[in-house]
Amino acid sequence: MKTFRFDTADDLCDRATTTIERIAAEAIAERGVAYIALSGGRTPRPLFRLLARSETIDWQHIHIYWSDERCVAPTSAASNYHEAEAFLLRDIPVPEDRVHRIEGERLPLDAADAYEVMLRETLGPEGRLDLILLGVGADGHTASLFPRHQALSESQRWILPVHVSAEPPWRITMTFPLLNAARHVLFLVTGAEKANAMRAIADGEPFPAALVQPTDGTAVFLVDREAASLLP
Ligand code: 6PG
What we know:
Elements: E1 2-6, H1 9-31, E2 34-38, H2 45-52, E3 62-66, E4 68-70, H3 80-87, H4 108-123, E5 131-134, E6 159-163, E7 170-174, H5 176-179, E8 184-189, H6 195-202, E9 218-224
Parallel strand pairs: 1-9, 2-3, 2-5, 5-8, 8-9
Antiparallel strand pairs: 4-7, 6-7
Bound molecules: 6-phosphogluconic acid.
The site of 6-phosphogluconic acid has 15 residues, from β4.
């Protein structure tokens, strides 16, 4: 498990920003476009603010996706799209048709099916995103893949509707087949409430976040001092 530790969340987001700038530039140079999935939750907010100020990211050549979404309206404060729109999307010149929102307002199965079709049309059979940002929950979940959930054993579908023990309970999530096809996965983990999960992951516990292991790519954990406090 490749981990980089930072004194503060701001230092972590600075590193995440330069990493994202590099990955985006490499993808655009090599393939003319970069496919990037944003994570949910509140950890990415300061990162979104920094990305919105980046002077090197060529947003015109970037497609934006989400690793997961809550089954709520896009105007809801619980919506991962709403969070990204408020702190990043409204401030960058990404073409509207390259912002691929998960339609949380639809029936979960319909939203999941539609997102999977769109992804397969955009990415082709390999399903290889250039970068997926992810968080880690205090219970070791990532995206909306929660411990002991049957979605963890999905081997074909890229996107699933899941009913989980968190609020709101219905969500749409990327599955391991898609997560592990990525070129780069970047976990952002901050706060003392994540320390136990990070220690368990480091100890080899098969938490969902520990099972994101790209078959031909990298997975890196960026962890602040508080979240790393129990790591050896
Ligand atoms: C979500 C996320 C989820 C999140 C973790 C960490 O929709 O909530 O995708 O996996 O990244 O729960 O959340 P925080 O960043 O709020 O701690």
